[in-house]
Specification:
Elements: H1 5-11, H2 21-30, E1 36-45, H3 58-61, E2 62-73, E3 76-83, E4 86-93, E5 96-101, E6 106-111, H4 126-137, E7 142-151, E8 154-162, E9 170-177, E10 184-191, E11 199-207, E12 225-229, H5 232-235, E13 249-250, E14 253-256, E15 263-268, E16 271-278, H6 280-292, E17 296-297, E18 303-309, E19 315-321, E20 327-332, H7 336-346
Parallel strand pairs: 6-12
Antiparallel strand pairs: 1-2, 1-11, 2-3, 3-4, 4-5, 5-6, 7-8, 8-9, 9-10, 10-11, 13-14, 14-15, 15-16, 16-20, 17-18, 18-19, 19-20
Length: about 350
């Protein structure tokens, strides 16, 4: 009888509470202030080449990530990423972030808001992923309801978000959330022309309650290590982008305001990509690593060297202009053709009016 209980729970009727698509979307957005905790798993199949510089990101984008999640507020939470060999815990406390690595027995404190950072497991837990998709899609996206499902033992109302920008690699995202609280319980993200999601994330167990303060406070014993860093340490390998060299538009997508001078951001809705400039040594290593990992060579009339990697949701290009020793990195949720066109435009000499 005990073994049959999960099957009985899955067979219970589900209800979407009769919410319209916009009502459910609004309820999901309001849920970011909820306190909750649970266990979640994400499964990604991006197929990007394994670059040593981004080794911490590769497992998130290809494979299963198991996470314990606690949230007291949007700026105070903890996410533990579990593996067979240990765990990595991320604590957010206002603008400060603490990362615990059980393998190295090391706690790292990052003091200050991180405007530039690599993706982390916490970005893939269902609540954070759903918020990011809805906010990025914007008012121009099409929303509609989906049949309800039972997720984590709860009735969940379904919301489908369809991208309004044809350059986006994302065709649609399906979100199932609690109709009572709006808490996202399951998210599926589909690439264009794909029958199966390239990224899915769901809670297997979750409840709305405020975590104990001790759970959200990083602790380490006298026998473990502690180090600190600042967000500026990461941006040190980047070269400041000169506004005079970056066009107002790339590959038909407009430039957007960026919170940091080292990053150019282009696009709208779910079709967005970033442009970073790496100094010669760092950029050359990234480019060679990409080619060694199987990225296709990128060529063009003004391109000295380049590489491009295509995946269901994220595409990446590296290009060295013939007139510069630095390397442009372009990465984002846009098609391979869009990224190739943008890379070719960045390789054009500045005196040939790149800003057209």
């Amino acid at each position: 009888m005990l073994c049959c209980l999960p099957a009985f729970a899955g067979a219970l009727p589900v209800s979407g509470a009769g919410l319209t698509a916009r009502q459910l979307e609004s309820r999901v957005l309001s849920s970011q202030r909820l306190a909750f905790s649970g266990y979640a798993e994400s499964n990604a199949n991006f197929g990007l080449p394994a670059l040593p510089a981004f080794s911490s990101v590769t497992p998130l984008l290809d494979g299963v990530s198991r996470m314990r999640v606690w949230q007291a507020s949007p700026d105070r939470w903890r996410v533990d990423t579990l593996s067979d060999t240990g765990e990595n815990d991320t604590y957010q406390d206002g603008d400060s972030t603490f990362v615990w690595d059980s393998g190295q027995q090391l706690l790292t404190g990052i003091y200050g808001a991180q405007t530039i950072r690599l993706p982390r497991a916490a970005d893939l837990q269902p609540a954070a992923l759903a918020m990011r998709i809805i906010n990025a899609a914007g008012a121009g996206a099409t929303v509609s309801t989906l049949p309800p499902q039972r997720v984590a033992g709860q009735s969940a109302a379904g919301l489908e978000i369809t991208s309004a920008t044809p350059q986006s690699t994302i065709a649609r995202a399906d979100i199932w959330a609690s109709p009572a609280t709006g808490l996202p319980l399951r998210v599926e993200v589909f690439g264009r022309g794909a029958a199966q999601p390239a990224l899915e994330s769901q809670f297997l167990q979750v409840g709305t309650w405020t975590p104990d303060a001790g759970v959200l406070t990083p602790r380490y014993s006298p026998g473990t290590g502690f180090t600190t860093t600042t967000p500026a340490d990461f941006s040190g390998v980047l070269k400041n982008l000169d506004d005079e060299l970056l066009p107002r538009c790339l590959a038909g997508l407009p430039r957007r305001p960026s919170p940091v001078p080292q990053v150019g951001v282009y696009g709208n809705g779910l079709a967005v990509f970033a442009v970073l400039t790496f100094r010669h040594d760092t950029g050359s290593e990234l480019l060679q690593n990409a080619l060694d990992a199987g990225a296709a060579p990128l060529s063009g009339p003004d391109v000295k060297a380049g590489a491009i990697a295509s995946a269901p949701l994220v595409n990446l290009a590296l290009v060295r202009p013939a007139h510069s020793p630095d390397i442009f990195l372009l990465v984002g949720l846009v098609s391979k053709a869009t990224l190739e066109r943008a890379a070719g435009m960045l390789a054009v000499r500045p005196d040939r009016d790149l800003r057209r």
